[in-house]
Amino acid sequence: QQQVKQSPQSLIVQKGGISIINCAYENTAFDYFPWYQQFPGKGPALLIAIRPDVSEKKEGRFTISFNKSAKQFSLHIMDSQPGDSATYFCAALLNTDKLIFGTGTRLQVFP
Amino acid sequence: DVKVTQSSRYLVKRTGEKVFLECVQDMDHENMFWYRQDPGLGLRLIYFSYDVKMKEKGDIPEGYSVSREKKERFSLILESASTNQTSMYLCASSLYTGTGGYTFGSGTRLTVV
After folding, report:
1. How far apart are CA B108 and CA B106, in angstroms?
2. Could you say which of A58, A82, B6, B11 is the most buried, measured as most Cβ atoms within 10 Å of its Cβ?
3. Into how many domains does chain B fold?
4. CATH number at residue B28
5. What is the CA angle A83-B86-B51, rounded to 5?
6. What is the pLDDT along chain A (111 residues), one digit of tens a residue?
């Protein structure tokens, strides 16, 4: 019930391509869905986030698409760059400010 | 620039030792969290705290305890370290409940031998 399922585990994309990472959840009590980006040797950093009353949020090349009825959300990285190579975590917030994280996706963008 | 600082980047301890992982934040944040990160398992919540002297169990608290004597400092304690506690430990803080915007430290990679 409290799980957030993330796929794929790893992703290889050509420079300029679109990277897509998907997440699904069961618990309808989740009310905030952030994405975190983690570079090697660093802690995760907040990238972009969405609330369930919005179907899409865009910040630069990063877009979250949210499907409330399907309980799914995804991160799209347009025009992927080698500098985007990192591990990405989706997460969902429970009402007590407790973040439940997905298992992570390692993205590699090749020139 | 806001910061969450974890005292050690790498730590090697022996089985059975008592281990202290320290975390300090300079943002006057109310909430602090300890996660462990393992390949294929993502980040799993160990303990969290909404206030000084207050603590709540997360999803995997067994074998761990915490201490929050001051608002800015949140310590994770491994009472008797075991090899299955070898992991990356991440501390995080957030300003208010419900924001979900955590600031993470760079992590402590603990190896128990």
Report:
1. 7
2. B6
3. 1
4. 2.60.40.10
5. 80
6. 678 999 999 999 999 999 999 999 998 888 899 999 999 999 999 999 999 899 999 999 999 999 999 999 999 999 999 999 999 999 999 876 788 999 999 999 999
Of residues B59, B102, B106, nearest to A46 (C-beta): B102
Q: CA nearest B92 in A: which residue?
A: A43
Question: Is residue B111 situated within a structural domain?
Answer: no
| CA gap B106, B21 in Å, rounded | 13
Whether residue B97 and residue A9 make contact (CB cut-off 8 A), yes or no, is no
- Return the CATH number of A4-61+69-110, one of 2.60.40.10, 3.20.20.140, 3.40.50.620, 3.90.1010.20: 2.60.40.10
Kindly state whether residue B110 falls inside one of the protein's structural domains.
no
Residues of A with CB under 8 A from a CB of B: 2, 6, 9, 32, 34, 36, 41-46, 49, 89, 91, 93, 95-104
Enter the tokens of residue A55. Answer: 């179907």
Contact A32 B106 (CB under 8 A): no
